[in-house]
Amino acid sequence: MPELTPGGRRIVLAVCCMSLLIVSLDNTALNVALPAMQHDLHASVSGLQWTIDAYTLVLASLLMFAGSTADRIGRRKVFVTGLVLFVLGSLLCSLAPSLEALVAFRMIQAVGGSMLNPVAMSIITNTFTEPAARARAIGVWGGVVGVSMAAGPVVGGLLVDSVGWRAVFWVNLPVGLLALLLTLRHVPESRAPRPRRPDPVGQLLVAGLLGSLTYAIIESSPVFAGIALAALAGVLLYEPRRDEPLIELRFFRSAPFSGATVIAVCAFAALGGFLFLNTLYLQNVRGLSALDAGLYMLPMAAMTFVFAPLSGRLVGARGPRPSLLVAGAAMAAGSLPFAAFAAETSDPLLFTGYVVFGIGFGMVNAPITNTAVSGMPRAQAGVASAVASTSRQVGQTLGVAVVGAVLAAGVGHTADTQGFVEASRAGYWIITGCGACVLLAGALTSGAWARRTAERTAARLEPDGAHTAASAVPS
């Protein structure tokens, strides 16, 4: 990769952050647009689930494939393709004449999105080779997630109330096009010195597993549940036979890696379900505008924005354990008032739940990648981090699918306050359970015993004993 000037490196970082911003802002802003989309497109609860899950499902299925393809054929080339597809998908979404078309166009968006964030992270790590500069760059990158989380509901609310829900997708167009022009002009091409070989069968099995599982949950289909089980069996039987599988199953012998996977799935399932329930309640039941609903949820986003960088520093100083314990306890405590005391009907309880849940989610993201790569050989750290990123998307997909299915089964088509609150309680108990799982998994997989399992796993992955362990990778 050619040497860049300090100004050139800053431009590369800005381009990567722009790609992260449009992907993250699109997801958070879209949540407050759901009721308007439901009304305009005559969508059911399951239809709304698909507008979210079609995107996260495709994203989860393709993240690892996109990262390995970029290493093989060129990161800049794949990044440019991702920007083009994401901008095109956003334009098509804004013009969607029906719910079915919107879901299809969201999948095009997701194909582009899968080529952006993991590839952008590879571009950053190859641009900023000095450890301190790389840490600062990744810190800026991580801060963009906090900005999008805080700004998304308010920006989405403003656009929906002033222009309409289609404007949520228009925001991506100028930012994406600017990022595309800057990439073509300033981002140099790079490839991995030894890229992983493609695994098309593994890719199809993973996509089949995630897709059939999500469909089985949302549509209550036992046939697709059976397909999901068959795909899972295929993954377990086929992947260990490959030298370079899409998913390295031996990683799961490391307790920190397994814990990070469980934590990522549970934390993002809780977030997806929490946002889904609150968005529908605030607008469909309380009758708030999209902007007012976004402002109502601002305390949660603000806490995430404040505590995310604090968690990163705490992980660097004390390891992932304190952040994980606080995250799990706070996420469970923040959702418990909704499950047990109908916090939606009391503003003090409502805002208390938002604040505490936001603290928990802010604390959880930084230690996930750190825990996943703890003790791994440096050569395997990128693959382990990619699995953790995929687990986040799988979690959000399952959270919306499960909580939405529970809500749809209980509420029917009524907008009655008491009926909605009672129907959503089971969903909040699931979210509370997810928080408790984060707490338990964090406690079990971040101690001395867990570190020893990671060391043994690293030794098995590189039996010559020459590996260099990755003990702390910035998230």
Let me know the largest β-sheet: 2 strands, antiparallel
Tally the beta strands.
2
Please mark out the parts with pLDDT under 50 across 5 or more consecutive residues, or reply none.
465-475
Look at the helices and sheets and give the structural class: mainly alpha
Walk me through the structure.
- The protein is mainly alpha-helical.
- The chain has 3 domains: 1-188, Growth Hormone, Chain: A (Up-down Bundle); 200-241; 250-475, Growth Hormone, Chain: A, CATH 1.20.1250.20.
- It has 18 helices and 2 strands.
- The protein has helices at residues 6-41, 45-73, 75-94, 99-114, 117-127, 131-162, 167-170, 172-186, 200-219, 222-238, 255-285, 290-296, 298-318, 320-341, 347-373, 378-411, 417-444, 448-461, and strands spanning 376-377, 469-470.
- A two-stranded antiparallel sheet has the order 1-2.
- The two termini are 23 Å apart.
- Residues 465-475 have low confidence and may be disordered.
